[in-house]
Amino acid sequence: MNYERIKEKLNILADAAKYDVSCASSGSDRANKNNGLGNAARMGICHSFTEDGRCISLLKILLTNHCIYDCAYCVARCSNDVKRAAFKIQEVVELTINFYRRNYIEGLFLSSGIFKSPDHTMERLVTVAKKLREEEHFNGYIHLKPIPGASDELMYVAGRYADRLSVNIEVPTISGLKLLAPDKKQEDFTKPMLKVKNEIVRYRNERKIIKSTPKYAPAGQSTQMIIGATGETDKDIMYSATYYYKVYNMRRVYYSGYVPMIEDSRLPSIRSQVPMLRENRLYQTDWLLRFYGFAVNELLNDAHPNLAVDVDPKLSWALRNLYHFPIDVNKADKRMLARVPGFGMQSVDKIIQARKFRKLNWHHLKKIGVALNRAKYFIVCNSRNWERRDLEAEKIKKLILQHSTSKFRGQYSNQLSLFN
Amino acid sequence: MNLSKTLIYDGSFNGFLTAVFIAFDEKINVADIQKNDKGQNVLFSETETIFTNVEKAKRVWNGIRNKNYNAITNIYFAFLSEEDGVELLLYTYIQKLMAANRGQSVDYSDGVTLRIGQLSRSVGREKHRMEGFVRFQLTKDNIYFANIEPDFDVLPLISRHFRNRYADQQWLIYDAKRGYGIYYDLQGVEIISLDLNEIHFNRTRKSKVFTEGEYDYQELWNNYFKSTHIKSRINRKLHRQHVPKRYWRYLSEKKEAV
Predict the structure, then answer these.
(1) Nearest residue to A151 (alpha-carbon basis) of A131, A170, A126
(2) Which terminal CB of chain B, N or C, has fewer other CB atoms within 10 Å?
(3) Is 50 exceeded by the pLDDT of residue B256?
(4) Could you tell me if A3 lies within 8 Å of chain B, comparing CB atoms?
């Protein structure tokens, strides 16, 4: 193995892969077979963190950054003048195994630019996974990113070796896709997704009858959308995400704030900021939909197509629907408790268990770890003190903002600054 | 009224459970439970030295497990936190547990229960971190070697994870702070103590103990680490929250930062 050359390739191809947000290694519990190498940890393990605070759990690389397509949002697009490189299959295998043995990584995340044709590229990705599993007896995590437009046969084989598959839709709206990625059609994304979903369902049903049925993509599939590249609303994004969760049984949808790299008339200017706050609000909404029992049209609808920037989506929903509150912590059901701003699901579970022993008061709630600065306007508990004033939504918001800080405050504060 | 007693045990978990057994059995009014190396005399109470008895420890273990399956993990994790006075806290917790009906919910509005839960969480967090932050280096005699210095005594907790994962390579994880390690020799894991004349944390000087290729891979990993940063999103505070500085000593990718 030519060390210097590998180093150079790794730099180029890891750099090009870093815009894929997903680095999850969770959801699979592949066991170590016959004293081979590796297993998958169900809750996932982060082995390090980048300086922007994202976790590094997989060796995330492209097989090559040569690409025949010209998608405006992508660094590897064919009209962009960047250094190109390509790994040999054996090089990727050796790198993965040696990193894995030193406990640097949980496994491999392999993606690729498209050379010759989608199927030709996909075949090579699958070969890497196959080699790792069959020749190296590797049982660690493998995340493959199928190429849009890959054939069903290859998708089938990919799922047999990989733990997770993800086709990125990148642009949440069809019109945006036409504008930014003229070579790709929406079917190119959805066809492989549908195939994976059907196979997962089929394998799961077979396992019910025959216990030894092999695994097919045990960690399911995920996808990613770029935020803030085409001027879409938060409603467009979340409705589209909900669609993918429902129709394709996605485990996760990732939202990736657009990082401007290239000057292009179709895209935000190169000096524009990465929309990190917006990204954060979208993730919060995503969590509310998946774990807190909210429906998407409660949070985003025609009257409110965008999320509030200054407060989180749950608080903003509560302020619009004050007639539900205040609720009694000692009586309300789980569904309603989960809707109180400042209550997380862990707090909700603790409250439900603790209130069987005694009636809870402010002191107990504080100990349990509830964010009372927000919650206190929306609840009553076993105490004579509670918010008796009939406050307007605007007033509550003001009071909460007064008593909290946020690193994003500078971005949306409309308070006049004294010195400019 | 029977006089309160301080129980002295040998510092092992079995020793602690034996102490709990004896306290219940002889209906002792427990003032404190202490490790024998502490040797603190408490005023107004007698001391009694406990001899570890695996049979008795096992009965306590099973008794707790039959009451509440999750509680036994909480107790073991909290015990490994090595916090001052955790023994008495655990004893109170076990008393409460035994007084309660089987399978009851957890009383999160109770101070002791909440505290045990928190302690067990921090130990659990440390265990999980160590599963990620161990960095093996390949020695010339083909052993993957790693040094760690965890806040809590987590080696007994992570041994199974590494045994399952690296079943086809010899490895050794050494806790430099507590002076013992676990070694897997392709058959099973055993506890060892080493006479290390140098501790192999990060330094730019290469050690002769490790293979040539070892430093190449570290370099590749460092390079990979650097190329994953997105410049326009740098957030060092968050980075330090996820990878606290006290772990940097043994992380090869932070070699230059140390």
Answers:
(1) A126
(2) N
(3) yes
(4) yes
Q: Identify the helix (H) or strand (E) that includes residue A194.
A: helix A186-209
Token pair listed for A320: 């619009």
Tell me which residue of A150, A163, A155 sits closest to A214, measured CA to CA.
Answer: A163
- The Cα–Cα gap between A51 and B248 comes to 13
Domain A3-294, CATH: 3.20.20.70
- Give per-residue pLDDT as tens, A59-112: 999 999 999 988 888 888 888 888 999 999 999 999 999 999 999 999 999 999
Q: Summarize pLDDT for A164-179 with one digit per residue, the tens.
A: 999 988 888 888 888 8
- Chain B residues touching residue A56 (CB < 8 angstroms): 225, 228
Burial of B90 (0-12, 13-18, 19+ CB in 10 A): buried
Given a cut of 80, whether residue B197 has pLDDT beyond it is: no
* In contact, B122 and B82? CB cutoff 8 Å: no
Nearest by Cα to A129 from A121, A118, A119, A138: A138
Pair A248, A220: CB distance under 8 Å: no
Distance (Å, rounded) from C-alpha A48 to C-alpha B129? 9
Partner A, chain B 81-140, Cβ-Cβ below 8 Å: 104-111, 114, 128, 131-138
| ipTM score for this prediction | 0.91
A131-155 average pLDDT score? 93
Type of residue at B189: V
- Token pair listed for A15: 């750099």
Interface of A with B in 110-129 (CB under 8 A): none
* Strand blocks (E) in A284-378: 327-328
A345 close contact with B: CB closer than 8 A:
no
- Which residues contact residue A29 at a Cβ distance below 8 angstroms, ignoring those fewer than 6 apart? A39, A40, A41, A42, A218
Confidence (pLDDT) at B44: 64
Rg (CA), chain B: 22
Chain B, 165 to 204: residues with Cβ < 8 Å from chain A are 165-169, 186
- B117 to chain A: closest CA residue: A368
Q: What is the pLDDT of residue A420?
A: 43
Q: Where are the domains of chain A?
A: 3-294, 313-417
Q: How far is CA A3 from CA A67, B24, B205, B224, B227, in A?
A: 25, 65, 20, 14, 17
Q: Which helix (H) or strand (E) holds A253?
A: strand A252-257
E-strand ranges in chain B read: 4-9, 29-35, 46-49, 137-138, 143-148, 170-175, 180-184, 189-192
pLDDT digits (tens, 9 = 90+) for A213-242: 888 999 999 999 999 888 889 999 999 999
